[in-house]
Amino acid sequence: MIREFESKLKATNKVMELYGMTETSPVCVSNPILGKNDVIIAISQSGETADTLAALREGKHKGALTLGVVNVVGSTIARETDAGVYIHAGPEIGVASTKAFTSQVTVLILIMLLIARKRSMSVLAGHNLIDELTKLPQKAKSIFAQSHLIEEIADKYKDKRNFLYLGRGINFPVALEGALKLKEISYIHAEGYPAAEMKHGPIALIDDKMPVVFIATNDLIYEKVISNLEEVRARKGIIIAVANEGDTKISKLADHVIYLPKVCQALLPLLAVLPLQLLAYYIAVKRGCDVDQPRNLAKSVTVE
């Protein structure tokens, strides 16, 4: 055990030496572990977000390559990054960004595709992904066609005080986004959480008054999500599931199911987030909230 510890200590010292750190160097925002072989991608709708800009400048100071993914042309982040992409989503009037979020994720997928093709992805796999991407607008229409169902769900649970959003893997950030939108515009407390961590705390909150939103798409960890869903059902939680078309198993377990057309895993967030944004919108409207100008929020956070 002592030898193993000494080996790990030597490895740590090599990393510190590489980045010009000493044993007393603080690892914090003022001294991040960054170097000339690292890349920082700054994502901001406005291009003026103060904390993102501060991190970007610190990264440049450390010699990292900086890329910007912004919406506002000529914004500070766009000017100060080494390179980047304008998402061209058009003016985002609402404080709680929706189309900017979708456009940002799309750009990140394209960056991922570019890097993958330069490394190991085949031409065929690249073409297939692009083909799937071009079909997304049509697939999104099938989700909007379920707006009446989502509105009915919103009407039924608009007065609940708490919501829990659960997802695994690539669906966890989607759960975070769904919870964020609900709390931003409806003022209902909502938390996004990894479904795998549900038993480490959130399960204590579940009762017959708690709506739990599952992103339960049919992938390699589908059965694990189903297991989480059964745990919630056993505790009489209200289950709202986002699942793939043709999934008959989920309908037997959930109180409500919103179906997504099938799409490759990498593009799933672009579709899975749509019903969650619609749910937040309808709940906010039915509660009489201003969905474009939520209280206490600003479009651009220009101070830290």
Give the SSE map.
Blueprint: H1 2-18, E1 39-44, H2 50-61, E2 65-70, H3 76-80, E3 83-86, H4 99-119, H5 123-134, H6 136-144, H7 147-157, E4 162-167, H8 171-186, E5 189-194, E6 211-215, H9 222-234, E7 238-244, H10 248-251, E8 256-260, H11 268-286
Parallel strand pairs: 1-2, 2-3, 4-5, 4-6, 6-7, 7-8
What does it look like?
This protein has 304 residues and is α/β, with parallel strands linked by helices. It contains eleven helices and eight strands. It has helices at residues 2-18, 50-61, 76-80, 99-119, 123-134, 136-144, 147-157, 171-186, 222-234, 248-251, 268-286, and strands at residues 39-44, 65-70, 83-86, 162-167, 189-194, 211-215, 238-244, 256-260. The chain has a five-stranded parallel sheet with strand order 5-4-6-7-8, with helices on both faces. A three-stranded parallel sheet has the order 1-2-3, with helices on both faces. Helix 10 links the parallel strand 7 and strand 8. The radius of gyration is 22 Å and the shape is globular.
